Amino acid sequence: METDILDSLEDLGYSGELGEEGGLRKAVEGPDGGARCLGYTSLIAWVTGELRTLSSLEEMVNATTDVDEHSSFLMELSSFLKEIGCPHSQMTEGAVSQRLASPEDRLLLIDFLLGELMAARMISEAKPDSAMTVEMVGSSVYLACG
């Protein structure tokens, strides 16, 4: 899963410290990983910020600047995940302190959010300009932009 995540980060234009295999592994493993890792919260804040803009979402997730802010990060993340309809209940239900407790859950979160971001970008690119109208005249179709 790590290799797929690194490939996705590169494809999405992420240039932060977790774009390297060693950086990602360090950010998700051990007691100082996940919500207690400033780089991890920075990555999650970047992805959720992109999603928020593309999908016109209300909730936002801020990166932490201190390891003691991990609880507020998890609460913001939980609200964001509920807003986008995250299917992974271990990230939105139960004790906040148990969310993202394992490296697998931390990687799952990144993988899920990156998939959502890729989909949002594809939808955004495929969405026709809102000012475009289709007008049928006789047997011909004319597109009017403006």
UniProtKB/TrEMBL annotation:
One cellular-component annotation, GO: tRNA-splicing ligase complex
Gene: FAM98A
Pfam family, one: DUF2465
Family: Belongs to the FAM98 family.
Organism, as annotated: Chionoecetes opilio (Atlantic snow crab)
InterPro entries: FAM98
Lineage top rank: taxon: Eukaryota
Protein name: Protein FAM98A
